Fold this sequence. Notes:
Layout: H1 3-7, E1 9-15, H2 23-33, E2 38-44, H3 50-59, E3 64-67, H4 72-78, E4 81-82, H5 84-89, E5 94-97, E6 102-105, H6 108-119, E7 128-132, H7 136-147, E8 152-157, H8 161-169, E9 177-180, E10 189-194, E11 212-220, H9 228-236, E12 241-243, H10 246-261, H11 268-276
Parallel strand pairs: 1-2, 1-3, 4-6, 7-8, 7-10, 8-9, 10-11, 11-12
Antiparallel strand pairs: 3-5, 5-6
Bound molecules: 2'-monophosphoadenosine-5'-diphosphate (ATR).
2'-monophosphoadenosine-5'-diphosphate binds next to helix 7.
Amino acid sequence: MSNVDREVSRYGVLGQPVAHSKSPRIHAAFAKSLGQKLLYEAYEIAPDELGPSLTRFHGEGWQGFNLTLPHKTAAASLCESRTDAAEQAGAVNTLIRTATGWQGDNTDGAGLVRDLVANLGVVVKGKRVLVLGAGGAARGILAPLLAEAPSILAISNRNPWKPEEIAAAMKPLGNIVPRTHLSLKGDQFDVLLNATSAGHQGSVPRLPPGLFAPGAIAYDLNYGPASEPFLAWAKAEGASKLSDGLGMLVEQAAEAFQRWRGTRPETTAVLAGLRAG
Length: 277
Ligand code: ATR
């Protein structure tokens, strides 16, 4: 590496697998749109290599990382400090360099709300919202959704104990209603968010019919093939609007970029570029 290259700030995404990650393309597009020069690379890191890798990257002067599967939860305990968003989510998707280590942040929830409200024009305030799933993805979006003041924020999961635990843990932030899939029968929601990983196995959570209120949106936090089973089910169930999570991916990246670089990039053209292939 030349001296000139060493002066360029270095960022990356760590995951396993990571080859499919769109983050390098997204961050390169952000940097280009702002006339900034930076390096952003994808690194395949095994779970037991995450701790040593973070120490090494810090020693080498890297400025920040995004984390993807399977590192989001494990990374939280490897950080020297965590933002409120990371504490609330119990998971970290963004690392910010400090003098002595890494600060862990979580921009997934802010990214989701931005996509839902600003990009898709969905009103959350005063609406009935249901989150499906109780893993890291679900936990990451609950506090930012509460901040939008829905009339109800319910969470339902295949394992019925997890929503109870999450609702109890998040009680200081607001009221989250723990539900079981079966108990939802007869209820309707305006916003249904799929934060399960069922789509990666080509399946959909086993839910009762009739959950979509008139005008309701079905949103899958996944994108690509993993989002298709839920969105197909939602369409058959009469959801009025459907969206995958590609916009959330771009918006969480923009939030991370802002934390690293101080400027929030424009996202519209980048998202359109990704949709175009
Ligand atoms: P992530 O960090 O992506 O949230 P995770 O922590 O493994 O991943 O959580 C996966 C979530 O998807 C969980 O809520 C899981 O339900 P359980 O807690 O009951 O395991 C949910 N999930 C995974 N496969 C599912 C399926 N086939 N049907 C319904 N829910 C499923």
